[in-house]
Amino acid sequence: MSVFVFTNKYETKTIDFSNPKAVKALNKALLFEHYNIKFWEFPDDNLCPPIPGRVDYIHHVSDILNASAISENIKVLDIGTGASCIYPLLGTSEYNWDFVGTDIDKTSLEFAQEIINKNNLENTISLRLQTNSKHILKGIIKDSDKFSISVCNPPFYESEKEAIEATTRKLKRLKKDDDKLIRNFAGKHNELWYIGGEKAFLHNYLYESSLFRDQCIWFTSLVSKKDLIRGLKVSLKKLGASSVQIINMGTGNKISRIIAWSFQE
User: Assign residue 246 a region: left if phi > 0, alpha if psi is -120 to 50, beta otherwise?
Assistant: First the structure.
């Protein structure tokens, strides 16, 4: 980590947040220092999640469960766990929850499994491969499953072009030249974009959640685009959701929100 640290013009020690290797080293240090994660290695082209925002989501999930008096035998479904396996790592560290992590990328799951094994978390985190990229919960949730809640960080972009445009804007804010388009948190195509974008992914997720309404008490997801919320709430009403919550969440300069819904009373 120290190799990336420098003193800026304000005499403050910092890192270059446009450098993906520096950002990854920072996140690795945070996991080691605060969450007892001793091994966290995966390819640089996989999405490197910002730890403060991810743990903030986990704390909000805890609040939802507490408000519903759900405190025992908590089992969480992580949709799109990725190579970093970040939500299961944070959830087991902070709250001792059990997790099932899913992904459509077999290689990502192999790296996630290595992280699980080397942190001795095999008894609390298991992984499942989604073999059909058109589905989110179908083929994943088994008849015998009972989940307390799900978490999800959906793909935000409709295409590689949209992802590159977003990266260009971010680099300009960081006052970096855009001739080398490097995402400071990296990310593979299945982690960043989805046909139809975030809107299509979320509406697919909402529909499939209604098919498993008795096997998961709460479903949740991050939502990056505020203007999607109204349509999501309308869809959930049509699907028969008994409770819908919108939780605003902000970490640093990024503003996001969580949508949570349940079909159970």
Answer: beta
Q: Give the model confidence (pLDDT) of 147-182 as tens digits.
A: 999 999 998 655 555 555 555 555 555 455 544 444
Letter for the amino acid at 50? P
Let me know the angle formed at the C-alpha of 123 by 131 and 30, rounded to the nearest 5 degrees: 90
Contact indicator for 115, 41 with CB cutoff of 8 Å:
yes
Helix (H, G, I), strand (E, B) or coil at 218: strand
Burial degree of 203 (CB within 10 A; 0-12, 13-18, 19+): middle
Q: Is the whole-model pTM more than 0.90?
A: no
Measure the CA–CA gap between 76 and 71, rounded to whole angstroms.
Answer: 12
CB 259 within 8 A of CB 223: yes
How would residue 238 be classed by pLDDT, with cut points 50, 70 and 90? very high
- Cα–Cα distance for residue pair 104/116, rounded to 1 Å: 18
- Helix, strand, coil shares of the chain as percentages rounded to 5? 40, 20, 40
Match 């007892």 to its residue by tokens. Answer: 36
> Which residue has 């446009």 as its token pair?
18
Measure the CA–CA gap between 19 and 21, rounded to whole angstroms.
6
Question: Which residue do the tokens 């819908």 mark?
Answer: 244
**pLDDT attached to residue 170:** 53
Torsional sign, CA 117, 122, 124, 130 = positive
Q: Which token pair is 34?
A: 């605060």
Q: What is the DSSP letter of 207?
A: H
Read off the pLDDT of residues 187-212 as tens digits, 9 standing for 90 and up.
Answer: 444 445 467 789 999 999 999 999 99
